[in-house]
Amino acid sequence: MAQALPKQLTFDEFIEWLPENSEVRYELHDGVIIEMPKPTGKHSNVTGFLIEELVLTIIQMGKRGIWTIPRESIVKPTNEKSGYESDIIVLAQDAISSEPRWERESIIENATSVKLIVEVVISNWRDDYYKKLADYEEMGIPEYWIVDYAALGGRAFLGNPKQPTIFVYQLVEGEYQVSQFRRGDRLISPIFPDLNLTADQIFQVGGDCRFAPLQNSKN
Prior knowledge:
Blueprint: H1 11-17, E1 26-29, E2 32-35, H2 41-60, E3 67-68, E4 74-75, E5 88-92, H3 93-96, H4 102-105, E6 107-108, E7 114-120, H5 125-139, E8 143-148, H6 155-158, E9 165-172, E10 175-181, H7 199-205
């Protein structure tokens, strides 16, 4: 829900406003503070599973200690009136050392610090498909995933009837090119070429009971 405030805020005003140790997540969207919907158990399961798979792949790629997934961070787009706390963000350790606000506030301002951002879709799906997609592209984030395991997005994205889909956006010459992954597909990630993961595995973790029991994706 949007928080009623007398005026639109800048990013810095939003950071100053943020309550400490809050159990509620907030983002700033075009100057308006947004209270993010509380994630469901399935959403948390999918997010946790993806973090595990990415960490394993980071280790296999020899990037342990070079790439990292922080517990929390805030991405500052270029428009100065938005701030996003993504579900998953993979950062390059050598680049974040140049982030002026990282040590004190966990704020990411430079796309060079980011390898990947993942948003797992919940009820506010338009933010992931429209607002964040546009801002991450403009900012220059090299890879962005939209994981719509519950098929909550619009039919323009998911088809009719809707199908659970994972979208992988790759930045090519300043613009995103998208690949879609549905049942039976293996995910292909330019940033994580060694990733051994299928869409079915993600959908199963999200509660789709039509699949056989989950197998270890590294076997």
